[in-house]
Every structure is written in C-alpha cells, then in structure tokens.
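Hi everyone,

Forwarding the result from last night's run.
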Amino acid sequence: MWTKQLLSLLIVAATIGGAVAPRSAGAQVQFVEVSGDAGIGDYTMHRGEGGGIAAADFDDDGDIDLFIPNGLQAPDQFYRNLGNGRFEEIAAQVGVASSGPGRRALWFDYDGDQLLDLLVADDCQHVQGSCSITLRLFKQVSEGQFVDKAEESNLSAFIRTHDHPSDSFFGGMAAGDLNNDGYLDFAIAVWRGESLLFLNNGDGTFSDISRNRGLERRGDKTYQNMMYDFNLDGWMDIYTSCDNCPNLLLINQMDNTFVDVAPEVGVDNPWAGMGTALGDYDNDGDIDIYVTNISRESGHNVLFRNDSSGQTLHFAEVAEESGVEDTGWGWGCSFLDANNDGLLDLAVTNGSGILRWLNDPSRFFLNQGGDPVTFSDVSDAVGFNDTFVAYALIALDYDRDGYLDLVQTTKRTGEDPSQLRLLKNHPGPEAGNNNFLVVKPRMNGLNHWAIGAVVRVRVGEVTLTRLITAGTSFLGQEPAEAHFGLGTATEVDQVVIEWPDGTESVFADIAANQVVILDNSSVNAGEGEGEGETSGEGEREGESAEGGEGDGEGEREGESAEGGEGDGESEREGESAEGEEGDSESELEGGEGDSEGEVGEEERQNGNNRPLTCSASSLAAGTEHTPFLEETRALRDFLIPRTSIGSGLASIYYEHRP
C-alpha cells in the first residue's frame, strides 16, 4: 500500500512542469440569484460579525440541505432540498428551531450511527442584558427528527468567562478525528478569547480539553478553523486564521496536544486573517491555503502555495503574482471549479460598514492555469459583484445539474435587510459542454462521511485533488463530497480515495456526468493499481438501493430495501425490481449483466432536471457495463459510455442536463 507521502511525491512528479487540466479555454458562467424562486425566506443575521451556513445532505436523499443560524429572538432556519430546485423550511417540524443568538453551525455524525447530527453555537456579541453563550447539540433520530442532547453530551455545562463578555464571540467550527479513535472531535475559533477543543469520548459525551494543549493564546482574535493532515503523518492538524495576529498551523503531536509551526513553514502572516479555503488550485497534488484579509497598505489576502516535500512542510505566499491579493474587506471564500474546466477558481465575498469599504464588491477569480498559475478577475462578467456586507460563502450544487452554485449571507446595512442569497450557476456555451464527476466517499464505520479523506481523480496525464472537510470559509460548511470538472473528458481513468484511517481504495474507468458513492469495503493492498467497491447507499425520493456484505438494511418513508450478498431487492411506488448475481431487472434494457425493461417518457424526462438512477448489482471487476437504449440517446451520449468499477453493489446517479 502506498504511504501518503509516497503517493504525494508520485503525483507531484507526474504533474511537474506546470498546472495542466482537461479544460476548454475561456469557458464562462453566470451567477443569478434565485433565492425567492427556490423558496428561501427572510433571514435575520446575528448582531456583530457575520452569520454562518451549514450545508449537508442530512436525510441522505442525494440533495444538499441548508441549516442557517439566525439572530436573537429569530428562529433558526432549516431548508430541506426538495430535489426540484426548491427548498422547504422545516426547522420547527424536525425540532431545531431555536431562537437563541446563533451565529454558526456544523453537521457531523458525533455518535457514529451514520446519521448526521447538528451542532449550533450561540454567542452574545453586541447583545445587551441577559444572554447565554451556549452549545446546542441536536442528535438525529428516526425519520429525520432531532433531539437536543446538549445536557447528556456534557456540552450544556460549557461556560467560558471572557475578558470582554459582550465583545467575544465564536468564530468558525471544524470537526475531524484528532486522536484516531474513529469518533469526530471538534474545535471552535474564538474572537478575543481562548480557542476551544472538544474531544469525543465515544460514549455520547465530550470533554473540553482546550487548555494546556497548545491552542491557548488568550486575547487572540481567531476566526476560522480548518482541519487537514498537512504533514501527511496520519494525524489531523488544525489551521486557524487570526485577526490582527499571526495565523496558526497547529501540528498534531499524537497525544491531544499541538505545536504551532506556522512561522517556520511560512503561513503565519499577522494581518487581519478572516475566511479560509483549502484546495489544490495548481493541480500538483497537495493542498494550498487561501486566507482573506483587509486589503490595505499593511496587508492583503494571502495565497499559500504548498511546496512541501512529504512531511517537510514549506509554503510560498503568491497572492500578488497570482492576482488574488486584493478583494477589499474580505470574509468568506471558496475554491470551486465553476466552469468544469478542471481548474479551481476562487470566489470571495466582502464588505464592511466602514465608509472606505461600504461598496466593496464580491470578487470572482477565474483560474487561467499556466506555470505559475494566474487568475483573472471576472466578477462583473460572471455576475458575482454585489456590494452587500457579506460574510459566509459556500459552494454546492443545489439542483444537481453538474455546476457548482453559491450561497451567501449578508448583513443588514442601511435600507438593505440581511439576506440569505442563493446564486445559481448558469453555464455559457463553452462551459455547458464541459463534463463533471461528483464523488461521495463513504466509510463503513464511525466516520461514515469520511471527514478528512482526500479524493484524487486521474484523467489522462492530469490528477485532480479534493479534500473532504467539515467546516470551511468563514462560519461555513460545504457538503462532504468532491466535485471535479473534467473539461471535455467523458471518462475518469482512476479515482483514488485516501481514507482518514490511512487506507486507500482505487476505482477504475468511471464515466463522467454522474454522482457516485464509493465506499471502503475494499482497500488497495497492492502496489499502485487495484479495484475497489462501490456502495449502493445513494437513495433519492421514491427509490432505494441496498447491498450485500458491507451494506445494511434500512427503511425510508414509503419504501423498503433489503439485499443479500451481491444482489438487492427494492420496492417503489408502482414498480419493483429483482436481481440475481450478475444481472438485474429495472427500467433499462440490456444484454447479459445489464438491466431489462422499458423507459417511459416520464422516466426519461425525470422531472425538473432530476437525475436518472441506474442501480446495478454485482458489477464484476473489470467488466464493462453498457446498458444502451435507442430512446436514451437524447439524454446525452454519456449515458452510459462505459463503467468498470470493481466488484460489489453500485448505485450511480446519471445526471440529466437539458
């Protein structure tokens, strides 16, 4: 099995000579606000510095949902994605409509039951009179309901005395397995106070181990934590942005303590660090760091290019030469491949009530590739140039059309109310011809959403890298999935998943334009090449897919699923499917090993750009699976060109785009 360090070196060697990608040059997009049309209602941002967004597929139906903390005396909002381009607000219905002074939230499975739970943090910045600084932990139970477990988990007893109780507030949160016991721990940045670290005890409780762990620097104004194994030693580290103080890179010492190495490795700039994004913008196989600041004479945004070699860390600050140093008063930020050309672009949201930055526009930087990589400011051209005072910013594909959209929170300023803005990505003619792949890595175990995993996709000579995180941007969280733009490539040669437990899985020859769930049922024990397994855990409204060994049994409203080894049975309204080892019957016709049945007009149209679903049992390693129907040619020639993805059960979403 390749070690992380060796694999990283091989990827760097394979891409030496500059960043390349399977791109189509000059592809553009347009971001258009669709909040009202999508069912997004009024929003009340908490007083002080910002309001967060937490995005996740909480009900595992394939669509990304949004939790939005609101300010004092305004109930928090929970938007369930209906899968048709619209959301419904269900906070009160499912038990999470608190009206405390909420600022940020985080989805993570704290008890390892493979149901996402919700952590919400309240603070009292600029609140006069009675106000409680609290942590609320909502455990997801059956049928999408939530129960407050703050008291049982020891989090309700959390009280921290600050020097400035009405001025201190919680920054961003991040979760990860810091002690390699399988359970997810979490950290909270604190502006003008001590950063907090809570260790998961594995019995439904947490311990506050913040002090004497290398995190405490009382008086610092930390804004956003992000977790990643920066030095590739198998232990999650923490990077923290700091406002008017040096940023921190806290290296895990494997004993629940940390050592700050930011000055030695070049990521400690002492300016007004705020939002943080991690991504491999130059496609060289390692993770780079972007931090927003206040662009002025004494500072600017920073882009730390990762020039490390194995466990020897080194970063170079290249924001100015890359063209991403100046965004005014920066807050949230996200790396995203908006035009699916294989290169990570960069979106930054900005603003302040101070006159100099009052009309400070949001910025969008298009990655131009090259050696070194440069970006072009195309904010006006793509329509991401609002002048709101905006804080959180995340990227996600809310309508599953294969293009990443943006969600942004803004502050009430003058006559402008605070807003939750959903910006739909409309690809232009060139970008509209580009392909994509979304990989959802899922583990059979406590860390089911594979927080901390690294997903790599190889397309010809190019390797693209994405990180699975819980906590990013400024007070934000993006869903636990990896989106890859593929340019004009119609197939991925190889997907490699480096799991948080140090193992790896390799999957070969996967067709483009689909959302695929890959699990760790099979890990690569060979040298470099191997076949893995895919897991049939992807379920959409009105359908299910379950598998044999390594999969489970479950019921959803109006459906059931059960399966033996290598085959599965499911019932849906008005239809049924049976399968034996090596074949299946459904609505797609094919030869041996393919599906049989008919595709009706309703299924071909499949609603408002809803994905078509193909469930295939026991795809043998190295076996081509090419169900083909004359009637499906209109969907696009990628349905299905070729899929060879190892053994086990597979459930693959084939995206239907107009």
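The CA atoms of residues 543 and 572 lie 6 Å apart.

Cheers,
N.
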